[in-house]
Design a protein that fits this description.
The protein has 187 residues and is α/β, with parallel strands linked by helices. The protein is 44% helix and 22% strand. The protein has a single domain, classed as 3-Layer(aba) Sandwich (Rossmann fold). Strands 3-2-4-5-1-6-7 form a seven-stranded mixed beta sheet, sandwiched between helices. β6 and β7 form a beta hairpin. 36% of the residues are buried.
Length: 187
């Protein structure tokens, strides 16, 4: 698919400054992960991929396997479902770019583990500006549709929306991706 080179041209190389954080939002299959990966690859830095997904069924196991295969040996992969702030601290180092995909799966995991989502979100956001690695964070924008019909789905939407606002506030750059096209919203 010829979209990837266009995304590389559209994105700027990640800054060398500590605390540089890029936030990439979009809907399902919008091209947000592809754009985030292109930004990370264009940085020329040592690439680390943090996957937050959990395999609860065969379909998700297959998705995770396909993602691992597509990254190949070009990325060091770290899988972390809930303790994201701690993992980012552990793998932090200058000369690295760390891509986290994705924050909405992370919020789901926190909810399923009955963690305090607001406290964990605040803890994550407080760590971001302190890291030496360049960060690229990916998340699904879930607040543009209808109001969910059940309480858990509404709470999820609300947690994700609050987290997105917090991350966007500390991010150096923010992109919204739709139909494979990134719109730079900040930076």
């Amino acid at each position: 698919m010829p979209v990837l080179p266009a995304l590389c041209r559209g994105g700027q190389p990640l800054s060398a400054a500590a605390g540089h954080c890029v936030f990439v939002l979009g809907g399902a299959r919008s091209g947000k992960s592809r754009h985030a990966e292109a930004l990370a690859e264009a940085s020329g830095l040592e690439r680390h991929y943090v996957a937050t997904g959990r395999a609860f069924d065969d379909e998700m196991r297959e998705r995770i396997a396909l993602h691992r295969e597509s990254r190949g040996g070009r990325w060091a992969t770290h899988e972390e479902a809930v303790d994201l702030a701690d993992l980012l601290r552990r793998i932090d180092a200058p000369g690295r770019v760390v891509l986290v995909d994705c924050l909405t799966l992370w919020v789901t995991n926190l909810m399923l583990d009955e963690r305090d989502v607001a406290a964990e979100s605040a803890r994550l956001v407080s760590v971001l500006p302190t890291l030496q690695a360049r960060l690229v964070l990916v998340s699904n924008e879930v607040g543009l549709g209808i109001v969910p019909e059940n309480r858990m789905a509404r709470e999820f939407r609300d947690h994700a929306g609050r987290l997105h606002q917090m991350v966007a506030a500390v991010a150096t750059e923010v992109y919204f991706v739709a139909a494979g096209l990134p719109l730079k919203m900040k930076g």
